[in-house]
Amino acid sequence: MLWLRDRALDLSKPRLMGILNLTPDSFSDGGLYLEPEKALQRAKALVAEGADLLDLGAESTRPGAAPVPVEEEKRRLLPVLEAVLELGVPVSVDTRKPEVAEEALKLGAHLLNDVTGLRDERMVALAARYGVAAVVMHMPVPDPATMMAHARYQDVVAEVKAFLQAQAERALRAGVPQVVLDPGFGFGKLLEHNLALLKRLEEIVALGHPVLVGLSRKRTIGELTGVEAPRERVIGSVAAHLYAALKGARILRVHDVKAHREALAVWDALSAFQGG
């Protein structure tokens, strides 16, 4: 069970987190939902397709992305967040800035998603003060602009696992009520690192916290399938996420909710089927 303020999300089966990027430069859908009305319509569509929760972000964290000033991130995020909270589904906020996180939590955001892995003590303190769960993601350095220069590991799974475990324990000791672990696919990781993490994902699941996986439309999928356009990497994304679910991931962060919902419905039926 994932506790999201006034509600609980049953994690007895995989759940879908619909991505809503309020940015001009995200790798897959940058610029599509900058206008609040378009963003709200997209949020409604994701919910209609079966998203269990939504993840709103107003700063791209793709490799090499430039940072967004605090006030600009707030301007993009907060009006849309306020509107989306009226849809009745839990809302996660994807930000690495405490100033933005605090305003989002004041409005009622249900989950804090920090790609820097709660390295900033202020983020930990905010999650504890507002009583919200937090996603702890692995990135080798807390800067998307330079993270790919640090894609060097002796044993990527062991190193990512150790980081996630340490940050989770630190957050829980500080009063954060619950953590979700995200291996950070593509964040300071090459293809071989992403494949190793996916293949051995059960080692991270074994830490005992819900695990979130986000491979949707990413470069890894393009490298494996030969599909260059991110928006056309749907089938490969579904395949990777079904494998992650089989390994124990319980939240799948996706752009294409409908395709994933249909695939999970078939998977659920086969898992439950008792016939011969």
TrEMBL record:
Catalysis performed (reactions): (7,8-dihydropterin-6-yl)methyl diphosphate + 4-aminobenzoate = 7,8-dihydropteroate + diphosphate
Q: Which GO terms describe its cellular component?
A: cytosol
Co-factor(s): Mg(2+)
Q: One Pfam family of this protein, by short name?
A: Pterin_bind
Q: Which InterPro entries match?
A: DHP_synth-like, DHP_synth_dom, Dihydropteroate_synth-like_sf, Pterin-binding_dom
Keywords, A to Z, come to: Folate biosynthesis, Magnesium, Metal-binding, Transferase
This chain's protein is named Dihydropteroate synthase
- In its UniProt entry, the species of origin is given as Thermus arciformis
